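Long-time lurker, first post. I've been practising inverse folding by hand and with some scripts of my own, and I keep getting stuck on stretches where the structure tokens seem ambiguous. Below is the full token string for one chain I'm working on. Before anyone asks, I'm not after the true native sequence, just a reasonable design that respects the backbone. If someone could post their per-position residues I'd love to compare against what I wrote down in my notebook.
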């Protein structure tokens, strides 16, 4: 007879009882001391002090517990060794069998999206990195999903024999797509080439990914109905017919570089612009919306250049902002932009800076749930009042916080 959700829930609650008794009350402090994990964790957290300085102490404690639990139960975790330790062997039989079970069922991190909400805190999930679908039980996720409706979730998950459960802080990611996560990971480690390598990095060092908690409530940024996504692709074009493109583009030239601004779609909010390096025979397509990138590619196709409609890089402006803060570095995706900055490229660069400045100004109000003088802060940021109001309304609708689940 197939288990009902009530049966599975009962099993999950019993598993949680064992987690509290064995993991929280014994094994986490045991491993922290034996493996000298506290100094290691403190060093990692200190690296991201710019991000964590305003976090509640409880969040950092949850992350530390989550990190230690993963080190114990991961595929190459401590648990296999610990089963032979006298302190572990002396545990009650049920608790020891609980630990034995997890030597065969390692815990892992998962970037996933909800495919379907089942009943009573059950969700059908899909891991966006592996494509695996799994049944997840998470009361904390249930309440967070109802408030925020995130696109993605970053969680530590464990299989209990009937379904998966979350452990530690649930990190909802409202504004981010799988492309954003991949971009962030390659900024951490440029050697990452695919999803497997990305998850190996997360398993090896989850701390930078933990820092995405700071952006868990950030909204999708959109202008005039189009989501702001920075799109980039580079192609080798032996002979670009710049003259033949005159009817479709406005041209500028500087130091062997042509700047081709697509008519109609070259202005705000799309900023569909191509750069051609005559010396390198390299064409860089850029846009700040998916629609702009598509129209740019189709316009180039009319001149005989058939290029991929999908951008090599498609990253949200929110991810750029957060990645720069977490990783403490300036991210430059367009090597040609500065050549034209003082001439015809002010609107694109300034608008993105203004959006980022406005987000920084409103975050203190957003985090406390206070109302703001939109007109005043929009003026300070140099952003259009209507656009500022749209961003603020997105924020007000989605105020929430990460949650701890066991």
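-- Answer (accepted) --
I ran through it position by position. Result:
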């Amino acid at each position: 007879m197939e288990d009902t959700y009530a049966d599975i829930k009962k099993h999950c609650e019993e598993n949680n009882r064992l987690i509290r008794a064995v993991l929280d009350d014994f094994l986490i402090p045991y491993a922290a001391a034996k493996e000298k994990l506290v100094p290691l964790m403190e060093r990692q957290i200190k690296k991201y002090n710019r991000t964590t300085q305003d976090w509640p102490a409880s969040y950092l404690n949850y992350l530390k517990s989550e990190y230690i639990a993963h080190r114990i139960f991961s595929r190459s975790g401590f648990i296999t060794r610990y089963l032979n330790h006298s302190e572990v062997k002396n545990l009650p039989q049920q608790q020891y069998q609980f630990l034995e079970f997890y030597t065969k069922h390692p815990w892992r991190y998962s970037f996933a999206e909800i495919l379907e909400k089942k009943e009573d805190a059950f969700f059908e999930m899909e891991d966006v990195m592996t494509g695996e679908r799994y049944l997840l039980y998470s009361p904390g996720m249930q309440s967070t999903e109802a408030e925020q409706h995130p696109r993605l979730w970053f969680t530590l998950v464990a299989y209990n024999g009937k379904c998966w459960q979350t452990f530690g802080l649930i990190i909802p990611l409202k504004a981010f797509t799988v492309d954003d996560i991949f971009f962030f990971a390659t900024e951490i480690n440029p050697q990452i080439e695919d999803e497997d390598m990305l998850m190996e990095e997360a398993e090896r060092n989850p701390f930078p990914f933990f820092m995405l908690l700071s952006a868990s409530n950030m909204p999708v940024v959109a202008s005039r109905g189009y989501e702001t996504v920075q799109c980039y692709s580079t192609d080798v074009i032996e002979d670009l017919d710049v003259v033949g493109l005159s009817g479709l583009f406005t041209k500028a030239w500087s130091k062997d570089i042509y700047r081709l601004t697509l008519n109609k779609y070259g202005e705000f909010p799309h900023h569909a612009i191509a750069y051609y390096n005559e010396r390198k025979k390299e064409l860089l397509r850029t846009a700040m919306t998916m629609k702009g990138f598509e129209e740019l590619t189709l316009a180039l196709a009319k001149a005989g250049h058939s290029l991929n409609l999908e951008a090599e890089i498609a990253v949200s402006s929110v991810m750029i902002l957060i990645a720069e803060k977490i990783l403490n570095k300036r991210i430059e995706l367009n090597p040609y932009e500065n050549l034209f900055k003082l001439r015809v490229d002010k609107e694109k660069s300034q608008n993105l800076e203004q959006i980022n400045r406005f987000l920084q100004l409103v975050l203190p109000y957003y985090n406390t749930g206070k109302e703001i003088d939109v007109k005043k802060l929009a003026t300070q940021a140099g952003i259009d009042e209507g656009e500022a109001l749209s961003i603020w309304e997105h924020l007000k609708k989605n105020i929430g916080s990460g949650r701890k689940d066991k």
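A couple of notes from the structure itself: The first helix runs from residue 5 to 34. The longest strand covers residues 108-117. Happy to go over any region you disagree with.
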